[in-house]
Amino acid sequence: MQLELSPEDAAFRDEMRTFFTTEVPQAIRDAVASRQELSKDQIVESQRILNKHGLAVPHWPTEWGGQDWSPLRRHIWHEEMQRAGVPLPLAFNASMVGPVIAAFGSQEQKERFLPPTANLDIWWSQGFSEPDAGSDLASLRTTAVRDGDDYVVNGQKTWTTLGQHGDWIFCLVRTDPDAKKQRGISFLLIDMTSPGLTVRPIELIDGGVEVNEVWFEDVRVPAENLVGEENHGWDYAKFLLGNERVGVAPVGSTKRVLAQAKEWARATSYAGGSLLDDPMTASRIAELENELLALELTALRVVANSADGKPHPASSVLKLKGSELQQAVSELVVDLAGPASLASGAGDGSSLEQWQHRATPAYLNLRKASIYGGSNEIQRQIIAKTILGL
Amino acid sequence: MDFTYDDEQEALREAVRGLVGKAYADFEQRRQTVKRDPGFDEALWGRLAEMGVLGLPFAEDDGGMGAGPIEVGIVAQELGRVLAPEPFLTSVVLAGGLVAAAGSAEQRAEVLGALSAGESVLAFAHAEPGSRWEASATAVSATQSEDSWTLTGVKEPVPHGARADLLVVSAALPDGGTGLFLVSPEGVARDGYPTHDGGRAARISFDATPATPLGVGGDATAHIESATAAAVIAAANEAVGAMQVALPTTTEYLTSRKQFGVPLNTFQSLSFRAADMYVSLELAQSVALWASMVLDADPASAQKAAARAGLQVSRAGRHIGQEAIQLHGGIGMTAEYSIGSYTSHLTALDHLLGDGNHHLAALSSAVGGYAEADPLP
Ligand SMILES: Cc1cc2nc3c(=O)[nH]c(=O)nc-3n(C[C@H](O)[C@H](O)[C@H](O)COP(=O)(O)OP(=O)(O)OC[C@H]3O[C@@H](n4cnc5c(N)ncnc54)[C@H](O)[C@@H]3O)c2cc1C
């Protein structure tokens, strides 16, 4: 047991902090801080800056741009990035398909895809979920039938996040209709400009359009785009989802929003003082801070124990509690905005603050955090089954 | 104490449901209506006027129907059930309620007559940048010269402020206190925009704008407090209506959606959560109906009852709204499907007139003054 960071790790933290706050453009970090939707260009620009300095995919194998850091350093990198308001490297690239290709892809696939994936020259989308295959992902029905050197893909994916920007989509497809559920699934990389592939936007309750339906009608995909072995896609998906779970506990960004919320409360007058002096508001903030602290400590403790590269089973705790706290902080911000939280559609001429305009859309949007990446019910099931043996 | 509605009240419910419930039976109809300005259906508003709904709480002498908070609650519930965007709560109950309470006989006849007839939409311009549901105004001030008054300052957000034909405006008085004024919006700078739940709000900027004091003028803080309390109780009823639909929408989804080869309601972890939603709804409904009865029987103690209803409904609305989306999964996040809009509207109702902790603060400051919280006066 030791509380302080070693001098080397402390120096590493300072280095990260300086880099993120000086190299990534202020305009991008301000957009993150004011909880605006980022443009594709902003996300790409930010990731390319990180990648140029070896900071986009440090968890990949070193020959493909990884850094061979200790789990603690990886954690510091991740937290400092969020603290500085730097958009995280696109998860579909950095945390999902990249590690899968690096672990299970052919040498040709690695050479062809990994460098542009790290640099966000290719924007990947995740084509797993289908209308009837959500939590029960293995019941997916999109088919890929071998025809000469190609697979012919038919079916529909849905909830495809930022699919409107996608260049390529990694999909789970059924290649053996006769095998039992998990066993007939393959992992296929599909060029989204292929004929027969259509992307249709889905409007969400905050008015934003960040998810899509993706339709496949006789889409021909070269067989060389199969990752690993045919009918083994489920194994790769499980590997990917384990990584996703760790990546989606946004402790750092939740801490940042909560710190901002304190400033917003301080600037709001209430009962002759500021809203931060209000005991009910202050105690609510203190309790959230305490829970976030507990979560961050757990992340550090769990991270230190996942030496063999496999996610610690307690990573489900991070996803479950991390999303709950993210949602609770967003709810706090709506309450801080008070009557101004209704003004979500106000334009530039508004006399209310930008954070007040954004409060409710952000709250509504974040309801998704307990649904995607394996819903919180599914996380509880994992905890109950794999940790508690129930 | 008797929670049952009489025949006339049931008939009112049937009539409103027959009109509004039918108009928005298809959620897509509501979605299209809120996409276009003014954000509600003017024709439906006219038919509500014909039915007497827009004059429901006002005296017959003022052109109204002379009904009470129970009837207002029934209408609010019915509107809430289908998320009807028509501004009954903010225009009739709140703004109209202020005119009824503070207006002169002449003002009441004219303003409430036109409101009841569906000829004029009223808005209460009260919230200000930096305000938090206080009864007072500070950002807009009133100035008197000889017999005439003018207002200067900014109000935002004003529910339906851009569409309104007439504004009731709160303003700081030169000698202290908060006055109420009628303002014709002609020539007033108004920037309207949609709210997250499909409603409408506006920034309204007054610049030496001519204004007419409501009634005898002077400090109207007490009127604002009591009209707000009545509106909180109506809003609680509207939220109860919304929750009454959000719950079965969710349970029906749980029984029809299949994952892992079985309907979702097979998973007790989900059906128990629906049971908890039911518990929240029942408690909220009890307090909302009770508060309506208190307002009817003893308007003097309505403020505390309103705070109790506001608190209970805020907590229930969050619980039910959040769980309704969660139990739906991804589909609950989409604008096309209804349930997310229920959550959005419950959130708006929660923050329109004071959220749960606002009401809790008011109740907390008074707990030392009595022994037990009794339902009977
Ligand atoms: C905003 C957003 C972005 C997304 N982005 C992507 C993406 O980019 N790519 C992609 O492939 N997918 C994406 N998803 C899909 C996401 O992974 C699914 O929504 C998720 O798996 C849940 O599936 P479902 O929506 O079909 O809900 P369902 O599986 O139908 O679940 C409905 C409810 O039942 C619960 N439930 C289900 N099974 C059980 C059980 N056995 N026990 C207890 N409770 C259960 C769920 O937890 C949920 O509360 C996204 C979803 C959202 C909302």
From TrEMBL, chain A:
Q: Name any one Pfam family assigned in the record.
A: Acyl-CoA_dh_N
Keyword hit for Oxidoreductase: yes
Annotated organism of origin: Nocardioides donggukensis
Cellular component per GO? plasma membrane
| PANTHER family given in the database record | ACYL-COA DEHYDROGENASE, ACYL-COA DEHYDROGENASE FADE29
Q: Which domain of life is it from?
A: Bacteria
Q: Which residues form the Acyl-CoA dehydrogenase/oxidase C-terminal domain?
A: 231-387
* Alphabetical list of InterPro entries matching this protein: Acyl-CoA_Oxase/DH_mid-dom, Acyl-CoA_Oxase/DH_mid-dom_sf, AcylCo_DH-like_C, AcylCo_DH/oxidase_C, AcylCoA_DH/ox_N, AcylCoA_DH/ox_N_sf, AcylCoA_DH/oxidase_NM_dom_sf, Mycobact_Acyl-CoA_DH
Which keywords accompany this UniProt record?
FAD, Flavoprotein, Oxidoreductase
Name listed for the protein in its UniProt record: Acyl-CoA dehydrogenase family protein
From TrEMBL, chain B:
Record organism: Nocardioides donggukensis
Which parts of the sequence belong to the Acyl-CoA dehydrogenase/oxidase C-terminal domain?
234-357
One Gene Ontology MF term? flavin adenine dinucleotide binding
The prosthetic group or cofactor this protein requires is: FAD
Please provide an example of a Pfam family that matches this protein in its UniProt record. Answer: Acyl-CoA_dh_N
Q: Give residue ranges for domain Acyl-CoA dehydrogenase/oxidase N-terminal.
A: 7-119
Task: State the Gene3D superfamilies in the record.
Answer: Acyl-CoA dehydrogenase/oxidase, N-terminal domain, Butyryl-CoA Dehydrogenase, subunit A, domain 2, Butyryl-CoA Dehydrogenase, subunit A, domain 3
* Stated name of the protein: Acyl-CoA dehydrogenase family protein
Q: Which residues form a coiled coil?
A: none
- Keywords, comma-separated and alphabetical: FAD, Flavoprotein, Oxidoreductase
Tell me which family the UniProt entry assigns to this protein. Answer: Belongs to the acyl-CoA dehydrogenase family.
